[in-house]
Amino acid sequence: MLFKLAVDCIILAYDPGDNQLKVLLVQRENEPAKGQWALPGGFVDEPEDFVVTAARKLRQETGVAVGYLEQVHAYALTDPTRDQRLASVAYYALLDLAHYAPAADRTHLAQWFSLTQLPGLPFDHGPKVQDAWQRLQEAARSRPVPFYLLPQKFPLNQLQRFYEALYQVPLDNRNFRKWVKGLPYVEASAEMETNVSRRPSKLYRFSAAAYEAFAKATQLTPY
Amino acid sequence: MLFKLAVDCIILAYDPGDNQLKVLLVQRENEPAKGQWALPGGFVDEPEDFVVTAARKLRQETGVAVGYLEQVHAYALTDPTRDQRLASVAYYALLDLAHYAPAADRTHLAQWFSLTQLPGLPFDHGPKVQDAWQRLQEAARSRPVPFYLLPQKFPLNQLQRFYEALYQVPLDNRNFRKWVKGLPYVEASAEMETNVSRRPSKLYRFSAAAYEAFAKATQLTPY
DNA sequence: GCAAAAGTGTTCGCAATACACCCATGC
DNA sequence: GCATGGGTGTATTGCGAACACTTTTGC
Predict the structure, then answer these.
(1) Closest residue in A to B45 (Cα–Cα)
(2) What kind of fold does domain A145-218 have according to CATH?
């Protein structure tokens, strides 16, 4: 039994405008479900690893070399209206929204949607987005994922709002800042915000080198 | 481009004899790599979800209805000696070793190997086993996986030795017991070990109902 | 009585939680 | 001067970590 293999991309970004996690959806240009909002992706048509296929699809949709790409799950598509055996492998990608630069001729076909207010999605794209979100939540407990979704320099409160959006819980500002200041890999920069009509915030940055050292030193606790 | 799709099963069990995690390998009956120890599995040849295929392969190899089956990863097989496009989806399965009952005509073809002393495996089966082990370690932090690998009634010290094998670290007996006794879903039974030439241990059991209640009540901590 | 593993308590330090007010800027 | 979000400290509590000896059984 032979399968056509598709790759679905769950492209995630954090929108500082409304403090929400967003997913990029495209309007399908072909049947089935033509015209509906759905996950970008396509068939694997090169003899290459799926992650390479996903990275290419992604570059086409976003115009950006992706920083973080991770497999979520492989799905057998059991939709009986499809006449072929299909399987799909889902990847989620993390993006700094500010770097999003779609090909100009595709702009009208792609749009960001809040994870909390998704439209109805065709096929099993809805559950796939949820699966990706959950994987991202788990990944963030052991890897520095927030920094792929934020600008290089960011205020601490933006980082807090990101965590609040990721886990959908409110966090205490003082405790959060105390926690972050204990992380050796989040460094204060000399820069401040400018042109804001309030007290300007200090900008912080992620240090990959410090993170590597920290990760190496940190032992797994068994339970 | 069309693919043949295979399912690989990483069948894991805990051996109380030597306190080691074991994986079930089979001797390949066909080329390529005929005669070598490798992961059981096979091609997806029914229009069904992969997990169903995996469960069937598993039942054929172990004679047991599996308690726990989880997808690890989907792999594109890039081995150039293979003449077809192949992809495989790996699942790990958890088994109580005492229930392992292979079909009699297959016994000589299957054997348990310690995760820490694996033979050289063909294709990418070595990395797949490692990936599965790591996924199991992660799953055990948020789900009650140990109880799929232990007998229904077990002494606490066996549970401790399981954790030591899973994470490859020694644990302090008093702290471990204190921790377990704080878990509402591990209950003491009235039974004791018998016929052991030492102080008999009390047997404990896992309560799925208590676990559900506990899991519902436990909030996620965000970071 | 000896071998072998089961079982038991206390202290310490750190990290998570709860909680409310002052500060710097643009307009 | 006021609106807006940035920034700060302390007390409490619970949990993980370190650490050594007694108990029960079969032989």
Answers:
(1) A1
(2) Arc Repressor Mutant, subunit A (1.10.10)
Per-domain boundaries in chain B: 2-139, 145-218
Q: Which CATH architecture has domain B2-139?
A: Alpha-Beta Complex (3.90)
Which residue among B78, B169, B220 places its CB closest to the CB of A222? B169
| Amino acid letter, A145 | V
Contact present, A89 and A39 (Cβ < 8 Å)? no
Contact A14, A111 (CB under 8 A): no
> B5 at the A interface (CB within 8 A)?
yes
Note whether B177 and B115 are within 8 A (CB).
no
Phi/psi for B217 (5° steps) reads -75, -30
Residue-by-residue pLDDT tens, chain A, 223 positions: 889 999 999 999 999 999 999 999 999 988 888 899 999 999 998 888 999 999 998 888 888 878 899 999 999 986 655 656 899 999 999 999 998 888 777 767 899 999 999 999 999 999 999 999 999 999 999 999 999 999 999 999 999 999 999 999 999 999 999 999 999 999 999 999 998 999 999 999 999 999 999 988 876 566 6
Q: How far apart are CA B191 and CA B202, in angstroms?
A: 6
CB interface of A with B, residues 26-45, below 8 Å: 43-45
DSSP 8-class letter at B63: S
B83 touches chain A (CB under 8 A): no
**B52-99 per-position pLDDT tens digit:** 999 999 888 888 878 899 999 999 986 655 556 899 999 999 999 998
A211 vs B162: CA distance, rounded Å: 31
Instruction: Test A74 with B74 for CB contact under 8 angstroms.
Output: yes
